[in-house]
Amino acid sequence: MYGKPESSDSMKRLKPLRRFRLTFWFFSCLQLPLYATSADLPLEHAAPGGIVIVPINAGNAQTHDAQKDEVEPLVHFYGNRVMVVRSSGTTPGWLAVVGIARSAKPGTHSIDIQWRTPAGLNKKKTSKQPFEVQNKSYPEQHIEIKNKRLVNPEKRDMSRISQEYREMKRAFVHWSPAGKDALKMDWPVRGPISSPFGLTRFFNQQPRLPHSGIDIAATEGTPVKAPKSGRVVATGHYFFNGNTVILDHGQGLVSMFCHLERIDVGVTQVIKRAEQLGTVGQTGRATGPHLHWSLNLNNVRIDPMLFLSDTLQLIEQPTR
Fold first, then answer.
1. Tens of pLDDT along 189-222?
2. Residue 199 and residue 138 in contact, taking contact as beta carbons nearer than 8 Å
3. CA–CA separation, 260 vs 29, rounded Å?
């Protein structure tokens, strides 16, 4: 369900000078560290598909230089770079906002920390910070799809699907500095949640990958708006996802909006919060009009509800 749209633009097609100007402008606007209060942080949910917020310098003598110079440490989780924000609370410090994969095993995990100074990376100052992930079970969902080709693609479809998967993977691992926009997100469209995150899915009685986002039911043609500012890194018509927009919010936080009726933005376009991205549709593998919103953090799919500024649906607590 991931990949390169048949008619997408690409940064590599831009003239070198234009590409340089776009890149320089974008990075120069986003180079400052992101500050976050406790009210602005996402909802912590230490379970598969959730988020863990890890203080990474409390009581650690190695952090003195990093705190003094306000240079954020470099943090990775299973090889993927992690969002780091500067706490603006009563105890200043750095916080790692770690996305936990839906497939993660319960138990102890750890992030890898490398401390930096204005002069660069200090290879002698490295550490690990452990945290716990609790168990969580997700219910099943059974869906009947009339177009059997969207359940079992034909051989001629596989080249396209593989190409689309590669493009989406590039978008999800892309890293850019954080913007000045608040960390919490708005609803891209209002409506009931027809399918929550993480469901164990069966299409036509056949097991498939878990649901990687939330489905918001809405009337076809309803405007879909950016939940947070960002930059469009891919658009196009995908085999499974239909008309799709992928929006990079910075620091490994990437939104994907699927099954759109219409796309109103283009690749490389910088988008403000609440700016229209397209309209609700039912393109691709869909049984009715809705928006599929997937949220990616450090290259894993997490529940978008955790980032919403006004969560209307409680997140089920981990089962121990």
1. 999 999 999 999 999 999 999 999 999 999 999 9
2. yes
3. 30
pLDDT range class, residue 135, cuts 50, 70, 90: very high
Is residue 65 within 8 A of residue 117, CB to CB? The reply is yes
Q: Cα separation of 101 and 99, whole Å?
A: 7
Q: Which residues of 240-277 are buried (b: 16+ CB within 10 A; e: fewer)?
A: bbbbbbbbbbbbbbbbbbbbbbbbebebbbebebeeeb
The pLDDT tens digits of the residues spanning 28-62 come to: 333 445 556 666 899 999 999 999 999 986 444 34
pTM over 0.70: yes
**pLDDT for the residue numbered 178:** 82
Which residues make beta-bridge pairs with 270? Answer: 231
CATH superfamily label, 33-133? Peptidoglycan hydrolase domains (2.60.40.1590)
Cα 185 to chain centroid distance, Å, stands at: 12
The ranges assigned to domains in the chain are 11-15+138-307, 33-133
Arithmetic mean of pLDDT over the chain: 84
Report residue 155: phi and psi, to 5°. -55, -35
pLDDT band with cut points at 50, 70 and 90 for residue 70? low
> Are 63 and 115 within 8 A, CB to CB?
yes
- Residue 306's CB is within 10 A of a number of other CB atoms, namely 22
CATH assignment of 11-15+138-307, among 2.70.50.60, 2.70.70.10, 3.90.1300.10, 3.40.190.10: 2.70.70.10
